[in-house]
Amino acid sequence: MALYRKYRPATFAEVVGQEHVTEPLSIALEAGRINHAYLFSGPRGCGKTSSARILARSLNCVQGPTATPCGVCDSCLALAPNAPGSIDVVELDAASHGGVDDTRELRDRAFYAPAQSRYRVFIVDEAHMVTTAGFNALLKIVEEPPEHLIFIFATTEPEKVLPTIRSRTHHYPFRLLPPKTMRALIGRICEQEGVVVDDAVYPLVIRAGGGSPRDTLSVLDQLVAGAEGGHVTYQRALGLLGATDLALIDDAVDALAAGDAAALFGAVESVIDAGHDPRRFATDLLERFRDLILLQAVPDAASRGVVDAPEDVLERMRDQATRIGPATLTRYAEVVQAGLGEMRGATAPRLLLEVVCARLLLPSASDTESALLQRVERIETRLDMSIPAGSTPAEPVEQPVRFTRPSAAPKPASKPEPAAAKPEHEPEPQPEARPEPRPKPTPEPKPAPEPARASETPSAPGELNAAAVRSMWSTVRDKVRQRSRTTEVMLAGATVRAIEDNTLVLTHESAPLAKRLCEQRNADVIAEALKDALGVNWRVRCEAGSPAPATAGPPHPKPEQPVPEPDSARRDEEEHMLAEAVRDEPAARRDPEEAALELLQNELGARRIDGG
Measured by CB atoms within 10 angstroms of the end CB, which terminus of the chain is less buried, N or C? Predict the structure, then answer.
């Protein structure tokens, strides 16, 4: 005999996992509050029909109505599990007898008094399959039944039952069993059957049963029937249930955690070589991501029964959960879920599985929010590993190449000599107006390692500081160049000074260019580049000054100041630098009046008259 029939409950106390239904029914039976119609709804295999038979048995027991039938009277013996049944309890399968003729026959038989029991009970299984005409034929008798008549409707889709019928019943919703309850049930049955089952087999059986006690016991029955020597092994269960080996799932997750494409595609190859269905592998991989997300969010998920796995598997999953961030796991689950939809009905599921794996390895291929969060997690992980709290890098960070103005470039050695021979024939100039002689042409000295970095406030692990931004400044400039070449060229003389209240402070050696970089358009370009490269949402401010930040040590003697260049020369150099940037860019939009005035001046020789 099948296990689900052999262990069918005989009383409400034996029904597992449906206490929210059995307890109110038991109280109503003990109090004698009997209704003329009941509606039992819920997923398949969760005990609706069995509970309907128990209710009929409790109503017709000689000591009843009672929640604990005696089990020895004729009615209890006739209505016991696997017994022949009673003439006063009629079961109708509406899936095959739901027409109007069947319900009319049932209605005519309902008026007869019970032959040997207290109540005449009609159990209508799959009640949602009754046609509208059939429900209309039953409507009158369900509204005003005889005293001896009780209807029990069982259905998986209560919303399809005629509302006028449903409103006249007591509705009891059944539910699927949680894994922890199901584990206790099948463990007790295996012990009674004298069968040894590996611990890793229970999650496979529970997952295959989908929370339905009947379906789960059917799966267990198949494994027990094929067990050699009364021992159900993990490998035998894998072959019969078509599940994916946990070792392959671990290999795939470990490869994703390490970013190892070769190992990931090797795991896919092993899945195909073992004969596993790619769709099933994707489903099991999605289940693993779900377990890892829960283990991160709920550390005691295993003890609560939310995650069901053997202890050795739980240890591996906890280790994997510490190596992959929650945003990354969430994106992995989204990608695999989307891939499962594409695999449905596909002629080449392996190809689609490999495409899904490629998407998992390449977060930059997507601009979704989950992909951006994954990039931020990777940056934070690198910073945690490279910049520990309270310390700074041992070596100074390499500064980006700064733009050198043409006038500041070293002059040939032969040019200063004519100026040295002039004082013999010219009057002596005033000392305060005399320009200081230029030093001999030597290469511009490189700035010494900045001591201010050693005094920067140490940042917490995962937070970006100025030193970290300097190390990635070349990447930021690449992102700026993709958006605006003009802005990128203006950044040539800018350096990162500090980060103040989510604002990146830049220092530029040219005051006009610093002002230009502070304009909204250029600041927005730099902010978007920072968000793309570093995953931060900062404002940008540029100040004019020395590229080297102020030091915290004692003041140094001021270096000899060079002769200030004329404003006209500085403007010429800035215009020359900007002209190189805008060479490949379309001209900015000009004021129509300015364009018209320029045209008149160039073509007709007009002269602008300024109003006083």
Answer: C
